[in-house]
Amino acid sequence: VGLLANRDPERFDTLYAALPDEVRHDLEELSPLAGTGRIRVPVELVSGPHDKFFPPSQSYGLGRIAPERRVTVTGALDHAKLDVSLGDIPAFATFDAFVVRSLRTARTQD
């Protein structure tokens, strides 16, 4: 229950390690990273550079299960937080390129 109620990402590793071995094993089996090489279609991922809940390192790690993956890291995104300024224009351009690329790919798949 402590892990589920946790709101502090810094405590995750300690709480996760405290789970019984069987529970950790089941969770690892449910993880998308357990499916080495199973995704055989192109995958597009976008992440904020400092996302505490889905950091870019996890997006890059999906290369083990999705060899055709492309990762876009942009400061335009922050997990569930919107804070926009004129200085963010380059980051939004990066995000726009991700959206356009994804829509173009989706259109060619039809």
Structure write-up:
The chain has 110 residues and is mainly alpha-helical. The protein folds into two domains: 1-30, no CATH class; 36-109, no CATH class. The chain has five helices and two strands, in the order αααβαβα. A two-stranded parallel sheet has the order 1-2. It starts with a helix and ends with a helix.
Largest sheet: 2 strands, parallel
Tally of individual helices: 5
| CA-based shape | flat
**What low-confidence regions span 5 or more consecutive residues with pLDDT below 50?**
none
What is the residue-averaged pLDDT? 81
**DSSP helix fraction:** 40-55%
State the distance separating the first and last CA atoms.
44 Å
State the total count of DSSP E strands.
2
Number of domains: 2
Q: State the secondary-structure class.
A: mainly alpha
Strand order of the largest sheet: 1-2
Radius of gyration: 17 Å
Question: DSSP strand (E) fraction?
Answer: 5-15%
* H and E order: HHHEHEH
Brief account:
This protein has 2 domains: 1-30, no CATH class; 36-109, no CATH class.
Keywords:
110 residues; mainly alpha; 2 domains; two-stranded parallel sheet; 5 helices; 9% strand
